[in-house]
Structure formats: C-alpha cells, structure tokens
Amino acid sequence: MRRVPTGWLTLIGLVTLLGSTWQVSQLGWFESGDDVGYWLGVVGGSMMLLLLLYPLRKHVRVLHRWGKVKAWLWGHMLLGIGGPLLILLHCRFQASSLNAAAALYSMLVVAGSGVLGRFLYVRVNRGLVAERNALRDLREHNGLDGDRRSVLWFAPTVQAALDAFERDALDRATSAGRHWVRLLLVLPVRSWMLRLRVQHQARLALRQLAAEQGWDGTNLRRRQRVVRRAVVAYFTAVMRVALFAAWERLFALWHVAHIPFVFLLVIAGVVHVVAVHAY
C-alpha cells in the first residue's frame, strides 16, 4: 500500500480543522460580543501578535541564543494556525465593520500565504536536491566530471559548450531576482537552440572520427545515438536543476508578501480593539 505524503496529510488536516471551526461557529453557542466570543478574539489576537517573535528571533542578534530555530519555527507555525482559527471562531466567519473586514482579510492572506508558501517551498527544495543529485550522477556516468574519459572526448568544443551552459544557467537561476520571468521563459528556448547546435557539431566530429578510424555505417549510427542521448539527457538535467533553483529562489521570498498585510493586520486589529472597547 502506497504511503500518503506527509505534506498532503498536513493539508487534509488543516482543511479538516477549518471545516470543524466553521461547524462550531454556526452552532450558536456564542456571539462575537459575549464573553466567550470576546475571549476567543483576545486569545486569537494575542497568538497573532506572538507570531512576530519568530522573525525577531531570526534577525535580532540578541535573541539568537534563545533556543533552536527549528523549535521557534514549529511554534510560529502552531501560532499561525491556531490564531487564525480562534479569530474565525470569534467573528463566526463574518466581518461586521470595515476595519474588522480589513483585519480579517489581511489575516487570511497572511495565514494562507504562509501555509501554502511553506508547503510549496518544501517540495521545491526537495525536488532541487533530487535534481542536483541526478545531474551529478549523469555527469559521472558520461564522464563529464573529468574523472574518466568523457562520452564527448572526440569533441572538446562541445563539452566546453555544455560546461559553459551549465555554469551560466545555474548562476542565472540562483541569482534570478526580479528577472525570474525572463529566466523561466527564455532559458528553455536558449537551451533548445544550443542543444541543436552542439548536436550538429557532435555529428560532424563523429563523422570525421569515423572516416579516420574506418567505422562502418552501423557503428557510426550507434555512436551517434549514444552521443545524442547523452546530450539530450544532459540538457534536460541542467534545465531541471536551473528551473527548480529559480522556483526555490522565488519561494524563498514568499514571506515578502506577508509584510504589507502584516502591517495592515496590526493597524486594523488595533483600530478594531479600540473601537470595540470605546463603543
């Protein structure tokens, strides 16, 4: 029996929690303004404020000695799940005023982007590790790592072009920055054009070698197939590593989307609390 991935189990659990929260909020056991609803809001809001401790732990040097980052991350994720659920219970999935709506939707964006971003980032990171290992194994298998004679030993210019393409593609991927769209759209086309060119160069070099060595047509075609497969596999592997690296770079910056909504959430939350106690 195939094991269900942990990530999918986590998502199923979160959806179940959200559905259960909705069901409880509709049972009529409390209202937003009574004691139960009030304290649900207080506890949920306090948990949302405590979320700010994790980025402080990461960026404030004085706090670096306060426990392990992994423990802080787990606490951050638990608060990021529990806080929004309590707030949703408090408001019963409704916003009764403009500032309450701003706080609610900002909270949903922050919590949703956090959960989704973390889920996708972990998978992209694991995929990148696997693709890097696959590229390393392919280089070793074809002798492109320099430890033994390369499958392209007869065409050093082709191997040099492949090495240059790999360096350039991976450098661009790891420093994609704001040019990531161009990388994702242009690099595949550039890879395809370069692959056609080096395959043509490899065929010419093989034909010249065949004439020098006196190979028959069958032997030449067999060697051409081997080289063609090696070149195609190499370009495919490099492209997969580059694209995964580019996506990892993007998802590593997913928390930037939190920043404006966090400020809006804090401001709207403060206004909401003041309005509730003032009126």
Description of the structure:
The chain crosses the membrane at residues 36-56, 71-90, 102-122, 230-247, 253-276. The protein has 279 residues and is mostly helical. The protein folds into two domains: 12-119 and 255-278, no CATH class; 123-252, no CATH class. Helices cover 79% and strands 0% of the residues. The chain has helices at 6-25, 35-50, 53-59, 69-91, 98-141, 156-174, 180-213, 217-252, 258-278. α3 runs antiparallel to α4 (69-91) and α4 packs antiparallel against α5 (98-141). The longest helix is centred in the middle third of the chain and has 44 residues, at 98-141. The radius of gyration is 28 Å and the shape is elongated. The relative contact order is 0.10.
Number of helices: 9
What does the average pLDDT come to?
80
The total of beta strands comes to: 0
Question: How is the biggest beta sheet arranged?
Answer: none
Number of domains: 2
Transmembrane segments: 36-56, 71-90, 102-122, 230-247, 253-276
Keywords: Membrane, Transmembrane, Transmembrane helix
Layout: helices, strands, pairs:
Elements lengths: L5 H20 L9 H16 L2 H7 L9 H23 L6 H44 L14 H19 L5 H34 L3 H36 L5 H21 L1
Helix pairs in contact: 1-4, 2-4, 3-4, 4-5, 5-8, 5-9, 6-7, 6-8, 7-8
In short:
Keywords: Membrane, Transmembrane, Transmembrane helix. With 279 residues, the protein is mainly alpha-helical.
List keywords for this structure.
279 residues; mainly alpha; 2 domains; 9 helices; 0% strand; elongated; transmembrane; membrane; transmembrane helix
